[in-house]
Design brief:
alpha/beta; Rossmann fold; 2 domains; six-stranded mixed β-sheet; three-stranded antiparallel β-sheet; 34% helix; globular; binds adenosine-5'-triphosphate; binds magnesium ion
């Protein structure tokens, strides 16, 4: 197994006028190829900060981060440009990296079709629903064909039905193209249904409370939707629920 991203005792503090905030405390984990890690933890504990460090938008205060491969990051807020239409927003990353060619453009159009946005390519972000904007942001990230996807609450603005569909779809893309991902979520079911491992975080300053291996007896029939009816699902749910609600007693 190849390591694509390793955090080794990584800590992060922010220094502002009002003082120092310790956000991450000695975080260690490894993301391997072909693996999906879900990160779950209370609001404000430092989940987005982990992705910001992984993508080198921020620097750690101490510890070591090792990387191998191209990283694609879908932010918690969609960060679409208001003055660019859907298609131009999606093309942006390829324009910046000067890799916009016919093949990439065809790939973008196939993604736009797949995600049901073909009639909206010329629309501007303020003409779209929250869920559609999230899909645009996701396509923009996928268009760069990254080895590692960092997805920060990628499905939170989607309604339940669309979320299940998109979750299955993104899972399929990640697995069939042999990519790896770290998915940040608030939703225990979502974490279990996509992840090979779930990292449960404590309150800020955030430490890793537990890393849980998720395995289903589904072999290559695993999809996020299929896991929800699997017998192991409820056990994993209870374990994570207990960890997340054990904060006060620590
Ligand atoms: N650039 C920054 N400067 C100062 N403080 C910051 C900065 N970025 C994040 N923080 C602080 O770090 C803490 C963790 O923030 P972060 O966004 O990582 O949490 P989160 O777990 O993603 O929260 P949420 O679940 O609400 O998305 C918060 O207290 C936040 O105020
Ligand atoms: Mg966040």
């Amino acid at each position: 197994m190849k390591s694509l991203l390793t955090f080794n005792n990584v800590s992060k503090s922010f220094f502002t006028e009002t003082g120092k905030t310790d956000v991450l405390s000695k975080i260690s984990f490894t993301l391997h190829d072909d693996e999906i890690i879900a990160v779950i933890g209370p609001s404000g504990c430092g989940k987005s900060t982990i992705l910001n460090l992984a993508s080198a938008l921020e620097n750690q205060t101490s510890g070591e981060i090792k990387k191998d491969g191209k990283i694609g990051y879908m932010f918690q807020r969609d960060n679409l440009f208001m003055w660019r239409n859907v298609l131009d927003n999606i093309k942006l990353g390829l324009e910046i990296s000067k890799t916009l060619n016919k093949e990439n453009l065809d790939y973008i159009h196939s993604l736009i079709n797949k995600y049901g946005l073909q009639d909206f390519a010329k629309y501007y972000p303020n003409e779209l629903s929250g869920g559609m904007r999230q899909r645009v942001a996701l396509i923009r990230t996928l268009a760069l064909k990254p080895d590692v996807l960092l997805l920060d609450e990628p499905f939170s603005a989607l309604d339940y039905q669309t979320r299940l569909f998109v979750l299955d779809d993104v899972y399929k893309i990640i697995k069939s193209e042999g990519k790896s991902a770290i998915i940040v979520t608030h939703d225990i079911s979502e974490a279990i249904s996509v992840a090979d491992r779930v990292i449960v975080l404590s309150n800020r300053p955030c430490k890793i409370k537990k890393i849980l291996d998720i395995k289903f007896d589904l072999e290559n029939k695993r999809t996020p939707t299929a896991t929800r009816n699997a017998k192991e699902f409820q056990q994993y749910f209870d374990l994570i629920y207990k960890e997340l609600n054990a904060y006060e007693t620590d």
